Amino acid sequence: MNIKSLAQCKLMGDEYCGFYSAGLTMLDNSSMRRFGNTYESGSETILTSDDGLKLTVSYEKSPYSDATEVLTSFENGSSEPITLEMLTSFLLPEVKADKVHRILSFWSAEGRVKTDELVDLNMEHSWNNMAFRVEKFGTVGSMPVRKYFPFVALEDSETHSFTAVQLYSPASWQIELTVRAGDVVRLSGGIADRDFGQWTKTVKPGEVFLAPKAVVATGSSLEEVCDKLVKAQHPDISPVDDNMGITFNEYCATWGNPTIDNLKRLADKIAGKGIQFLVMDSGWYSDCGNWWEYRGDWSINRNRFPGGLKELADYIRDKGMIPGIWFEFEVAAPKSGLYDNPEHFVKKDGVPLTVGGARFWNMEDPYVETYLDKYVLGNLRDNGFGYIKVDYNDTMGVGCDGPEGPGENLRRKVLATQEYFKKLRRELPDLVIENCSSGGHRLEPSFMELASQASFSDAHEIPSLPLIAANLHRVIRPEQSQIWAVMRAADSDSRIYYSLCATFLGRMGLSGDVYDLSDRQWSLLDDGMAFYREAAPIIKDGYTFFNYADTKSYNNPTGSQLVLRVYDDKVLCVYHRFADSVDIDSFAKRHGIDVFSHKVLKKYGNASEDFSAESYIFEK
């Protein structure tokens, strides 16, 4: 069903609300008193002012899920420019709730659920319903998933009801919980405002500004509302990537030092194994020493690839796989030969914005687009690559120079990046795009909709691998979540099971020293790939109805994790044991689940000790 949303804005120069709210929230400011006329038109709420300003909120059922898509626009029908300091994407005025669920994220620690009782956040209303209570959170910068995902869910424990929202905002964003009167929460969010993200936007007479989309869902559990939000995402999946194919990325084999010889060696070893993509990661370009120091100079390293890259791509295709290549095309590093020319870089305070040894191309600059067309698009087309891993390894921070406020200037740069993603697909319709940003810093819906796959994390070989993989079910589609299993010659059977079972929580991605594996290890890997292929329809189209781990630490996990995902008459069960753990039957029954009440169709792994894993496909 459709969920009705309202909207608010703040116009520069208008009075702030008061009641101790300035600097905490811009809601309920005097700008809203201008909008004295409100009326409904179908699935729209329209607010107008006497001088021609208009706020329009549309709320339509998602065509892909039982969720509601909310779009908010501001139209300036007056005779003067109007500068916005805040515009909500959504505003749900009265949500009864006592808990808030947020999803945290740092580098290699994506997806942890944080649950707070509102009373613990000091969010009880004041004795006379006058003063604001505000809980405001979000992300500032060009990595939209940093500390938090653009997601929130409110829970009413009394009625077991949940209301959840996902924002489609590729740059700075915010979400606000405000309480003022009674035991209800007002939930709103959108672009990070002037207070939070230094955002202002001037809308000229006759212009319309559209806020980022929000999607809202209700349900009776956190897993249910998350599933509805995730299924509302509609990614632009390449037609060659519609069968959950397996990817091999060579980074954890060469560590940024690929050559024609070691890539051919890998291709020879994995040929005929049913792997669809072989991706060459960083280090193939320039006169590359440390790969990160030469980003931006995308000329081919002739020492490593004396015959050029077409030789490699052709070789991989001859082995029955689609060749892929890594780029971080939005930046230039100090040894690229481009770094010291300031003209075409994003600037802050009049000088190139420099972060961690990188400068950021101004993606709105026609020169930059021409440069990328030659070295990125041209490379893909001329050499026959069918897969691009687009990485992005730092954030521009709060904003940059330009015609608007720093936050809006930043947003425009990021939108220009997204336009280049779209251009790649227009020019190369079968191209598979992997969305990567130091792992998971761009696992945000509007970026996810531009990609076939995404790197789930940079947590490749650490104990938290299955924890992150499972937690991401709540925010991205598992069919896009590429989870790495890194194979080493020293791996025990239990280690191989632990790694490969984690990939059953998304898209299987492989790496490591596979040419050093024993026949026994290859047999376990082959069996794991066979299990994955049988589980693929459940991973792609299923519903994760149970997702629980009884550990707090990612670095030193204890206990176990059980994930159950159902599709039609089959259930995928993935069980991981950490330190001080128990067997699957004991763990499941502790949570009221008899996992073996259904027929076992297929099993992989053996969770007989700590840090081992096993997976099942059951018939209901």
Written account of the structure:
- By secondary structure, the protein is α+β, with helices and mostly antiparallel strands.
- It has a domain at 9-232: alpha-galactosidase from lactobacil brevis (Beta-galactosidase, Chain A, domain 5).
- Helix content is 21%, strand content 32%.
- The strands form 6 sheets. Strands 2, 3, 4, 5, 7, 8, 10, 11, 12, 16 and 17 form an 11-stranded antiparallel sheet that branches.
- The chain is globular and about 75 Å long.
Biggest sheet, in brief? 11 strands, antiparallel
Which architecture of one domain per CATH? Distorted Sandwich
Our estimate of the beta-strand percent is 25-35%
Low-confidence stretches: none
Shape summary: globular
- The CATH topology of one domain comes to Beta-galactosidase, Chain A, domain 5
Quaternary structure state of the chains depicted: single chain
Distance between the termini: 29 Å
The total of helices stands at 12
Classification by helices and strands: alpha+beta
Q: What do the pLDDT scores average to?
A: 97
CATH class category of one domain: Mainly Beta
By DSSP, the count of extended strands is: 35
CATH superfamily of one domain: alpha-galactosidase from lactobacil brevis
Helix content: 10-25%
Rg, alpha carbons: 25 Å
Write out key terms for the chains shown.
620 residues, alpha+beta, Beta-galactosidase, Chain A, domain 5, 11-stranded antiparallel β-sheet, 8-stranded parallel β-barrel, 12 helices, 32% strand
Summarize the helices and strands and which ones pair or pack.
Elements lengths: L8 E3 L25 E5 L2 E5 L4 E9 L6 E9 L5 E14 L3 E8 L2 E9 L15 E7 L7 E2 L2 E6 L4 E7 L5 E7 L5 E7 L2 H4 L3 E3 L4 E3 L3 E6 L2 H11 L13 E4 L1 H4 L5 H11 L4 E6 L28 H10 L3 E6 L3 E2 L14 E2 L2 E2 L1 E2 L2 E3 L5 H18 L3 E4 L15 H22 L4 E4 L9 H4 L4 E3 L9 H7 L9 E7 L5 H11 L3 E6 L6 H23 L1 E7 L10 E8 L2 E8 L6 H7 L8 E7 L7 E7 L1
Helix pairs in contact: 4-5, 9-10, 10-11
